[in-house]
Write a structure and sequence with these properties.
With 639 residues, the protein is α+β, with helices and mostly antiparallel strands. It has 9 helices and 39 strands. A hairpin with a 2-residue loop joins strand 24 and strand 25. It is globular. It starts with a helix and ends with a strand.
Length: 639
C-alpha cells in the first residue's frame, strides 16, 4: 500500500510540476522569436503571432467586438512601441490590457487599463473631433520585442461592422489569424471575400456564426510603383442590410436604397437659409439664365466667404451642418460645405447631388458590388444637362477653379446621393492631352553669365501648382530656385502668373540669372543642352518582382531651349536626335543651329496603365536611358 501511495503522490507531483512549467515557461516560449518560421521572416519587419477578432451582433443597434493581437516587431526606425485603441461617445472600451515580451518570449511587463494615457485622437487645431485614444508608449532599443494587446469594445453603430483585412501594412507576416462574426439572421448579413483562394484558409459556418482562420501568411513586399495594399491583402468585407447609425435605423440592400436612406436621414432638411441670404443669391444670379454660369457665381461666392475645418462629432461625422449654420459660422467640413453649396445652387434652380468618394493621390474606388458606408470625402456632382459633361466641385478649396478636381479625386468611383436614391458613377480622368508641362527657355549667352527667361504651362493634374501661390512671394521664389541646380547660383525676378481657369492651364513666367553653366574645355567651351533636367527617379533594382507596376497618369512633358550665342561662337558637331519608343512612353529630342541660335527640343510621354511584373526591367531601362540622355553636352568653338 505504501509503495502504491508513493507512486500516486509521485504522479501528482509530476503533474503539478508540468502544469507550473507550462504556465510559466511554455506559454511564453511560443512567442520566442526563434520559433518563427523562416518563410515568415522574409521581407518582414513585423510578424503577427496571433490575432483573434470576434464580432457579436446582439441586435440592430448593438454589437460587441473582442480583439486579441500578439505582434513581434523585428525592427523599426524609432524606439517607440505604441499600443492603442480608439473610442468616442458611441464606442465604449469595456476591457483593455497589454503585455510585453522580450525576444525569448519572456514576459517583461503587464499593462492594465489604468496605465494607458487618454489623449485626443487628433491634435490639429483645425479639427473638431470627439474621438480619443487610450495609448501606452513603450520605449525600447532591444528588438525584436513582442506585444500583446487585448480589448473589448461595444457600440450601437452597426452601420460599421469591422472588416477582416489579413495585413494592414507591407512587410507584415501572419502566423495565425481568425475572424468570427455572429449575427442574427433577420439582420441579413452580407459578405464579400477577396483574394482568399491562395492562402491557408479554414472557413466554417455553424448556425448564425461565420468563422475564418488563416495560418502562415508571408509578408507582402513593398515594391516600387506597385499596387495598393488593399489590392494584395486577403480580406472579407462585412455589412448588414438592417443597421443603425447614431440613433438612426436603416435598411438597404442596394446602392439605390442606401442612397435613398442617406438622403432622407442625413441630407434632407439641411437647406434652410435666412431670407436675406436667399435674396442675395437671387440678386447675384439675376442676369444669368445658363445653369453653368449660375453655378460659377455660386461657387465663387462659397469660396470667398467660407473656409474648411474638419468635424467628427457623433452624427456630425456623417450628417452635415445645416446650410444656415455654415453661412453664420463661415466654415465647415467637406460635408457641410458641399451641402451649403448644394443648397445655394438650389435657390437658383441648379440641380446638384451630394457625392461620397475616396480622396487621395492613390486612386481608390467606392465598391460598386458591395453596399456599405464607405468613403472619406464629399464633393458635389452637377449633372448640368444631357448635352454637357457632368461637373464636379471641390467645395473645401478657396482657390480651386470651378470644376477642377486634380489628382485628389479624379478617375475613381463615387456614390452620388439624390432624392431618388444612390448610384455609382465615375469622376473625370485627366488624359494625355490634359496632363502637360510645356516649357520654353530662352538663354542669352554672355561671357560671364547667362540670362534665362522662361514660360511654363502646367495643365491637367499639374495645374495644381496654383496651390503654391498661397505660400507668398518669397517662398514661391525659393520654390522656383530649388528647381534649378544650386551649382548655377540662380537668382529669380519678374515672376508673372497667368491662370486659365476654363481649360485648367497655369502659366508661369520668370527671368533667371545663372552662372557656371559654361565649362571651359581647353580652347573651347562645354555646354549642357538641358539646364533643368527632368526630375525622374530611377526605379530600384528588383530581381524577384512579384507584382505588377502602375504608371498612374498619362502625361506629356515638353521642353524647348533656345540658346542665343554672341558673335565669335560656333558649334560644329551637333548630336544626333534621340528616339526612344516603348509601351510605357517615349523620349524624343531634336537639335538644330541657324546662325548664332541653337535650338533644342525634347518631348517625354508617359502612358498610364498597369503593367505586368516581368516588364519592370524594361521600364527601368527606359527611365535610365532618359536620365542618361539628359546629360548631353555640346562643344562650343570660340574664335
Amino acid at each position: 500500500m505504501t509503495l502504491a501511495k508513493n507512486k500516486i503522490l509521485l504522479f501528482i507531483f509530476i503533474g503539478i510540476l508540468c502544469l507550473v512549467i507550462s504556465k510559466s515557461g511554455f506559454s511564453q516560449a511560443i512567442y520566442d522569436v526563434m520559433s518563427i518560421d523562416q518563410d515568415l521572416l522574409e521581407n518582414a519587419h513585423t510578424v503577427v503571432r496571433l490575432e483573434t477578432k470576434k464580432i457579436t451582433v446582439e441586435h440592430q443597434s448593438n454589437f460587441v467586438e473582442t480583439n486579441k493581437k500578439v505582434v513581434t516587431t523585428l525592427k523599426q526606425d524609432d524606439d517607440q512601441i505604441r499600443l492603442f485603441v480608439w473610442y468616442n461617445k458611441s464606442r465604449k472600451i469595456k476591457k483593455l490590457s497589454a503585455k510585453i515580451y522580450d525576444k525569448n518570449g519572456k514576459l517583461i511587463q503587464k499593462i492594465k487599463q489604468k496605465d494607458f494615457d487618454d489623449v485626443s485622437y487628433n491634435h490639429s487645431q483645425s479639427l473638431i473631433d470627439d474621438s480619443r485614444l487610450l495609448i501606452y508608449n513603450f520605449t525600447t532599443t532591444m528588438f525584436p520585442v513582442t506585444t500583446e494587446l487585448e480589448y473589448t469594445a461595444e457600440t450601437a453603430n452597426t452601420a460599421f461592422l469591422p472588416d477582416w483585412t489579413l495585413v494592414n501594412d507591407f512587410g507584415v507576416s501572419v502566423e495565425a489569424s481568425s475572424y468570427e462574426i455572429n449575427c442574427p439572421p433577420e439582420l441579413e448579413l452580407r459578405i464579400k471575400e477577396s483574394l482568399l483562394d491562395s492562402i491557408r484558409l479554414s472557413k466554417t459556418v455553424v448556425g448564425s456564426t461565420l468563422k475564418y482562420s488563416v495560418t502562415s501568411f508571408p509578408a507582402i513586399k513593398l515594391e516600387y510603383l506597385g499596387p495598393a495594399l488593399d489590392k494584395l491583402s486577403p480580406s472579407v468585407k462585412i455589412a448588414i442590410n438592417k443597421f443603425h447609425l447614431e440613433g438612426l435605423y436603416g435598411e438597404a440592400d442596394s446602392w439605390k436604397s442606401f442612397g435613398k436612406w442617406y438622403y432622407d436621414n442625413l441630407i434632407n432638411n439641411n437647406d434652410r437659409l435666412s431670407e436675406s441670404v436667399v435674396q442675395e443669391i437671387l440678386s447675384l444670379c439675376s442676369q444669368e439664365t445658363d445653369p453653368l454660369e449660375k453655378a460659377k457665381i455660386v461657387y465663387n461666392y462659397v469660396q470667398e466667404r467660407t473656409r474648411y475645418i474638419s468635424i467628427q462629432l457623433g452624427i456630425g461625422g456623417w450628417k452635415p451642418f445645416t446650410a444656415k449654420e455654415v453661412h453664420e459660422l463661415g466654415y465647415g467640413d467637406c460635408k457641410a460645405l458641399t451641402n451649403y453649396t448644394k443648397c445655394l445652387l438650389g435657390l437658383v434652380d441648379v440641380k446638384s447631388h451630394y457625392s461620397i468618394v475616396y480622396a487621395g493621390n492613390n486612386k481608390k474606388d467606392i465598391d460598386a458590388s458591395f453596399v456599405s458606408l464607405e468613403g472619406n470625402h464629399v464633393i458635389l456632382c452637377l449633372p448640368i444637362s444631357e448635352n454637357q459633361d457632368t461637373v464636379y466641385l471641390e467645395c473645401t478649396s478657396q482657390t480651386a477653379p470651378f470644376g477642377y478636381l486634380g489628382n485628389f479625386t479624379d478617375d475613381r468611383n463615387l456614390l452620388v446621393i439624390s432624392e431618388e436614391g444612390g448610384y455609382i458613377t465615375r469622376t473625370p480622368k485627366y488624359g494625355k492631352e490634359n496632363n502637360i508641362i510645356g516649357s520654353n527657355y530662352n538663354l542669352e549667352i554672355k561671357e560671364d553669365s547667362i540670362n534665362l527667361t522662361y514660360e511654363k504651362k502646367f495643365g491637367g493634374i499639374h495645374y495644381n501648382r496654383y496651390r503654391y501661390l498661397r505660400l507668398g512671394e518669397k517662398k514661391y521664389k525659393e520654390m522656383i530656385l530649388k528647381e534649378f541646380p544650386s551649382s548655377l547660383s540662380p537668382t529669380v525676378s519678374n515672376i508673372v502668373i497667368l491662370k486659365d481657369e476654363e481649360k485648367f492651364v497655369y502659366t508661369e513666367k520668370a527671368n533667371i540669372m545663372i552662372s557656371n553653366l559654361l565649362q571651359k574645355l581647353g580652347e573651347n567651351i562645354l555646354l549642357p543642352l538641358v539646364v533643368k533636367p527632368i526630375e525622374l527617379e530611377i526605379p530600384v533594382v528588383e530581381r524577384n518582382r512579384a507584382h505588377s507596376f502602375i504608371i498612374r497618369d498619362s502625361e506629356v512633358l515638353t521642353d524647348n531651349y533656345t540658346y542665343n550665342f554672341p558673335e565669335g561662337f560656333s558649334v560644329t558637331d551637333l548630336p544626333e536626335p534621340i528616339i526612344i519608343t516603348t509601351e510605357f512612353g517615349s523620349y524624343r529630342t531634336n537639335i538644330s543651329m541657324e546662325l548664332n541660335v541653337l535650338t533644342y527640343n525634347r518631348v517625354i510621354i508617359f502612358n498610364a496603365g498597369e503593367y505586368r511584373h516581368d516588364k519592370y526591367k524594361d521600364y527601368r531601362k527606359f527611365i535610365k536611358k532618359i536620365k542618361r540622355s539628359e546629360n548631353q553636352k555640346i562643344v562650343i568653338n570660340k574664335y
